Amino acid sequence: MSSKRVAKSAVDWAALAKRVPPNQKEAYRAFKAKSDMFVSRVHKHNESLPKIDFAYYRSRIAAPAMVDQFEKAYQAVTIPYPKDAKNMKVQIDKDEKTAQEQSKAYVANLQKMIDDSKQLLDNINSVPPYEDMTHQMYVDYFPDQARNPVERPTFWPHLKKDQPENNPHTIN
């Protein structure tokens, strides 16, 4: 029975505390306090049944046969270690593997997004500052946004929302 007693916490609380976001610190502290309470309640009890000196009781009680009967009953007591009747551990292990695979895929997707964002930032940083940019440079860097009065004439104030092609009811 001693090999089955939980000697050390299976949870690495320090590593878990590093991963908890700041807005969930209070919930984490409450969860850890409740876990510590359960662990202390388990460790409060002895690992095995206490030893009883039945010889002392035999010498003090008039009916030693009754003490022998109690001794046999006491030695026959076994407290079984809880078993996983519904085999939940297998399901939990399977769910954990699935979650790890999903996490790896999620991290890979985020890493791809980070790489794409870095590429975009490199492209943005390659553009000269607005103060140094000329109209010709703007047309070269952003041909789809630059005004081109020859190919795409616009009406004042030259905003996209004010152009007739954006509102079919403007021109009948």
From TrEMBL:
The keyword Transport applies. Belongs to the ATPase d subunit family. GO terms for cellular component: mitochondrial inner membrane; proton-transporting ATP synthase complex. This is ATP synthase subunit d, mitochondrial. GO terms for molecular function: proton transmembrane transporter activity. GO terms for biological process: proton motive force-driven ATP synthesis. SUPFAM superfamilies: ATP synthase D chain-like. PANTHER family: ATP SYNTHASE SUBUNIT D, MITOCHONDRIAL. Mitochondrial membrane ATP synthase (F(1)F(0) ATP synthase or Complex V) produces ATP from ADP in the presence of a proton gradient across the membrane which is generated by electron transport complexes of the respiratory chain. F-type ATPases consist of two structural domains, F(1) - containing the extramembraneous catalytic core, and F(0) - containing the membrane proton channel, linked together by a central stalk and a peripheral stalk. During catalysis, ATP synthesis in the catalytic domain of F(1) is coupled via a rotary mechanism of the central stalk subunits to proton translocation. Keywords: CF(0), Hydrogen ion transport, Ion transport, Membrane, Mitochondrion, Mitochondrion inner membrane, Transport. It comes from Paralvinella palmiformis. The keyword Glycoprotein does not apply. It comes from the Eukaryota. Signal peptide: none annotated. InterPro entries: ATP_synth_F0_dsu_mt, ATP_synth_F0_dsu_sf_mt.
